């Protein structure tokens, strides 16, 4: 697998389209950090890290509106790819849907949202957009 983050986002996207409640994803440190950010910002209901096998798995409970059956995540877009990395300075971090969505940034201080990176004054690699 050449792009594990794109695989992570695709598994989430497919589970949302198929209306699954829980999705299982092979774990890595960067995927765990992205999962924590998505949970903190309210895009997923819950998550659990399981240490089985050589790398373990992440079980994610997706968040659905009970009345409309619509997911909290409308769109997941991969920005930086292994073939073309996208970096942004702290003063030129992207705004997703004029601040309604989040951009997940990998910085020297860890994985965080674009708003947190602006407050910290750090830039980094723009991993994905979520809204």
UniProtKB/TrEMBL annotation:
GO terms for molecular function: rRNA binding; structural constituent of ribosome. The keyword Protease does not apply. GO terms for biological process: translation. The keyword Ribonucleoprotein applies. Keywords: Ribonucleoprotein, Ribosomal protein, RNA-binding, rRNA-binding. GO terms for cellular component: cytoplasm; ribonucleoprotein complex; ribosome. Pfam families: Ribosomal_S8. InterPro entries: Ribosomal_uS8, Ribosomal_uS8_CS, Ribosomal_uS8_sf. NCBIfam families: PRK00136.1. Part of the 30S ribosomal subunit. Contacts proteins S5 and S12. One of the primary rRNA binding proteins, it binds directly to 16S rRNA central domain where it helps coordinate assembly of the platform of the 30S subunit. Belongs to the universal ribosomal protein uS8 family. This is Small ribosomal subunit protein uS8. The lineage of its organism: Bacteria, Pseudomonadati, Bacteroidota, Cytophagia, Cytophagales. The gene is rpsH.
């Amino acid at each position: 697998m050449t792009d594990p983050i794109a695989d992570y986002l695709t598994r989430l996207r497919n589970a949302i389209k198929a209306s699954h409640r829980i999705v299982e994803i092979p774990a890595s440190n960067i995927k765990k950090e992205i999962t924590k950010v998505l949970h903190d910002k309210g895009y997923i209901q819950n998550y659990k890290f399981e240490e089985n096998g050589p790398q373990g798995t992440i079980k994610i409970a997706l968040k659905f509106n009970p009345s409309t059956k619509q997911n909290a995540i409308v769109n997941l877009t991969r920005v930086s790819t292994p073939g073309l990395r996208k970096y942004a300075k702290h003063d030129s971090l992207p705004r997703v849907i004029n601040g309604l969505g989040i951009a997940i940034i990998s910085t020297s201080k860890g994985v965080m949202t674009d708003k947190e990176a602006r407050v910290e004054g750090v830039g980094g690699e723009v991993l994905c957009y979520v809204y």
